[in-house]
Design brief:
Layout (H helix, E strand, L loop, with lengths): L13 H32 L10 H20 L7 H5 L9 H31 L6 H15 L3 E5 L6 E4 L2 E8 H6 L3 H17 L6 H15 L5 H23 L6 H6 L19 H11 L1 H9 L2
Parallel strand pairs: 1-3
Antiparallel strand pairs: 2-3
Helix pairs in contact: 2-11, 2-12, 4-5, 4-7, 4-9, 5-7, 7-9, 8-9, 8-11, 9-11
């Protein structure tokens, strides 16, 4: 979607003692009631994840894993073109061989990507305690139905290095021809398709707002970055993309190194000009935030298993 948080005193008389006892009872009852309300509010706003910044060891693993992603991009014959490099390239006609090949591959991967996105959304709903009520389930089911309805990848010259969706036409993903050509791997293509499918899943009803909020809050606390509102939606969409691409790696085993295949879902963020805006984290910060949210991926990137 171009769319893309007393004090008490007592006297020594018996009546004074009784009055003190009564006052203490009222105070303790009131305090427990307030504490219970506050705890309930915290439980509703929190996720199932531990609320703290990354440990030094985990932060080091994230940094090492980020380095692996960008190193693999350089060595990988199917490494994605960084988005700042894409931005500097001239427009690419729809009928150019690179755009035609990219569009064909994106269309072929779309049905499987939809299945992977649905599985990832269901998993995140469990991870972030969004399957506790009938209302939550209904929202998720509507989001999944919108994903299932997507049918077409449409190449577009004017979109250049971007992909987008129009919510009044939620069955089509518009894919810039430069972007299509700049993602030569299936894993990279799936990550971007998944990102756009999440925007469609959210839809005009904002069905995934609570997921975005919880992912953004969790990432903010882990990294110390400010990740709310549209930034949280963009990061959550990227997270689904990374999870979907990782699931694809499991479904399609090969002799290629695991870190290389995982890196492909993130490598387009390996930019030289690392700049963000109000709606997006800087690309390299996006890599770090996603790896902080996905410690298993960080370990796989660093240790190769």
């Amino acid at each position: 979607m171009t769319r893309s948080f007393l004090m008490f005193t007592a006297n020594r008389s018996a009546s004074g003692a009784k009055a003190l006892l009564l006052a203490l009872t009222v105070f303790l009852t009131f305090s427990c009631h307030v504490a219970a309300q506050q705890a309930g509010t915290r439980r509703r706003s929190q996720t199932s994840h531990t609320r703290k910044v990354l440990s030094p060891e985990a932060a080091e693993t994230v940094e090492l894993a980020s380095g692996v992603v960008c190193k693999e991009r350089i060595l990988d014959p199917k490494g994605s073109v960084p988005i700042d490099d894409m931005q500097a390239r001239p427009s690419l006609p729809v009928q150019s061989p690179e755009a035609v090949a990219g569009a064909k591959r994106a269309q072929q991967l779309l049905p499987l990507t939809k299945l992977l996105v649905v599985a990832s959304l269901r998993q995140l709903a469990r991870d972030y305690n969004l399957n506790r009520s009938r209302r939550d389930t209904q929202r998720l089911n509507r989001a999944i139905a919108r994903v299932a309805a997507v049918r077409l990848v449409k190449p577009d010259v004017e979109s250049r290095d971007n992909a987008s969706v129009l919510l009044h036409n939620p069955r089509t993903i518009i894919f810039g021809t430069i972007f299509l050509a700049g993602l030569p791997s299936d894993e990279g293509m799936i990550s971007v398709l998944s990102h756009e499918l999440v925007h469609i899943a959210d839809g005009e009803e904002d069905s995934l707002t609570l997921l975005f909020e919880r992912v953004g809050n969790h990432a903010s606390e882990l990294t110390g970055m400010t990740i709310h509102d549209q930034r949280a939606e963009e990061l959550s969409s990227d997270l689904v993309g990374v999870l979907a691409a990782r699931a694809y790696v499991t479904r399609t085993p090969s002799y290629e190194p695991l870190p290389r295949r995982i890196s492909r879902s993130l490598a387009h963020n390996c930019v030289e000009q690392d700049e963000g805006d109000e709606d997006h984290l800087a690309p390299r910060s996006t890599i770090r935030a996603l790896l902080a949210l996905s410690p298993a991926l960080s370990r796989e990137l660093v240790y190769g298993r």
